[in-house]
Amino acid sequence: QVQLVESGGGSVQPGGSLKLSCVVSGRSFYQYAMAWFRQAPGTERSWVAAIKWSGENTYYADSVKGRFTISRDNAKNTVFLQMNSLKPEDTAIYYCAQARQSYTIDDYTAGRYYGYWGQGTQVTVSS
pLDDT (tens digit, 0 to 9) for every residue of the chain, 127 residues total? Predict the structure, then answer.
């Protein structure tokens, strides 16, 4: 059984930082692209960031570029999302996801290319 378990969410003031982690079990990790999505109340899920299976390429939504960093540790089956300079509009439930197919995928931003999802972790940015 494939499991993705996120951690690291919480409440922080604007300008603060958080680091999310997602551990994958039950399926090979290093062969698959990983991504983070988020969903705020009353909105659709949106893509945040993605990292290629090899870790050599990373991709970011314009809204988080320059503030968030995605990384992976293949030895620990873990993907991370370092979030700096957080804004109230970053408030959402954050989900990690693993690609359906191994190695390169056609679109790193589309949810349909990811077949396994975590349960989510809440991030709240408020003063």
Answer: 999 999 999 999 999 999 999 999 999 999 999 999 999 999 999 999 999 999 999 999 999 999 999 999 999 999 999 999 999 999 999 999 999 999 999 999 999 999 999 999 999 999 9
d(CA 70, CA 72): 7
The pair of three-digit structure tokens given for residue 55, joined into one six-digit string: 């870790």
3-state secondary structure of 37: strand
Whole-number Cα distances in Å, 96 to 36, 39, 58, 84, 92: 4, 12, 15, 18, 13
